[in-house]
Amino acid sequence: MDLFEKLRSNLGPIGSNSKLFNGHHYFAFPKLTGELGPHMTFFGKKMLNWSLNNYLGLANHPEVREADAKAAADWGLAYPMGARLMSGNSDMHEELEQQLAQFVSKQDAFLLNFGYQGVMSAIESLVDRRDIIVYDAECHACIIDGIRLHKAKMGDYYKFNHNDMASLETNLKRATKKVEETGGGILVISEGVFGMSGKVGSLDKIVALKEKYNFRLFVDDAHGFGTMGATGAGVGEHFGCQDGIDVYFSTFAKSMASIGAFVAADADVIMYLKYNMRSQIYAKALPMPLVVGAMKRLEMIKKHPELREKLWENVRALQSGLRERGFDIGETTSPVTPVLLQNDGGIVAATAMVRELRESYGIFCSIVTYPVVPKEVIMLRVIPTAAHSLDDVAYTLTVFSEIVEKLKNGYYTQQNPAGVDELAQTAVTESAAE
């Protein structure tokens, strides 16, 4: 068989749905245009946008835009050239690392080019084949891929049930027994905020288990950094257990509204990572405008708590409003707001409902279906930000109340409810012609 033939005939579990209802560019790879924020344009229609992780509204904050523009003018996008180990280091890279470390109460930090590859590479660097990883069952794909790298080195790993301390303790016992044979150590991995469910990781309870077991704790706090805790330093600060987190990771792609990431830990651990993280050793340094821009964003997080207060005002209004109307939003205690709808109509009903949300109501939010959620469930993932208004929340609550009644009454299982298919087809045809 030709290698590419199997690719053409099978686009994989996600790609296999790309031709369903002309979904490419509509349900997958959509093109939102206009200024980043709560109101954007989709196929020429104005949308109330609930799909951006721009938690603090920094993406288009005037001070941030000014700092980004000045940094690009001052430095260009090339500087510094080369990997930091060889020729790409600078005082400003190290200054940002110190600021980040201080903010999350760690000795030192290391800038990373991207969050996904950063997590993978950090995990791969921290453990060898003698060590055991114990991880939460709902960890993000980047963590799973990091564990796969550990597996490739013949390392063992155990999975504990999501936020289940009894399950974690069972697996810690297994891991403890195993490392007595191998001479290795144990790395427990969890998240601050789980990005799909919005649940907060039980970090305080995990840290408490250190009194009984010898392990180190790695926390991916991508959705908690900037949003959780008294100062925005994350879920560890929220629970008062930041000292018990041995390796703290976050990306700049959420609250910071940028590109890049960092990992923070004891100074000797960070020094080890600087010389052993392959994704950074063999990659060009983070460009200077992104470094300067990150400094400005961190300054905004520290100096403008009103941004976080506005975020949480919107979160409380949205989530309390949904619960009062009988919606199931799971156990979220973070800004991530999953709206779980019972659905007997399968993918047909799910796509029809999302089309009507966009075409008739002007609301754009992410949709999650099987296999991420059970077949009988549609999940609308709503991300409130500080840039949204209470009017945005009120309108969305009204619309959601309408669509859930239609879903219950089987409206979206019709072949072509209210001409929505034609609307979506027109949009996709226009996209193909561009």
TrEMBL record:
Pathway membership, UniProt: Lipid metabolism
Domain annotation Aminotransferase class I/classII large: ranges: 45-397
Family matches, as SUPFAM superfamilies: PLP-dependent transferases
Keyword annotations: Aminotransferase, Pyridoxal phosphate, Transferase
InterPro entries per record: Aminotrans_II_pyridoxalP_BS, Aminotransferase_I/II_large, AON_synthase_class-II, PyrdxlP-dep_Trfase, PyrdxlP-dep_Trfase_major, PyrdxlP-dep_Trfase_small
Cofactor: pyridoxal 5'-phosphate
Superkingdom classification of source: Bacteria
UniProt keyword annotation of Aminoacyl-tRNA synthetase present: no
Keyword Transport found: no
GO MF annotations in UniProt: transaminase activity
Pfam families reported in the protein's UniProt record: Aminotran_1_2 (PF00155)
UniProt family annotation: Belongs to the class-II pyridoxal-phosphate-dependent aminotransferase family.
Name the record gives this protein: Pyridoxal phosphate-dependent aminotransferase family protein
Organism in which the protein naturally occurs: Fibrivirga algicola
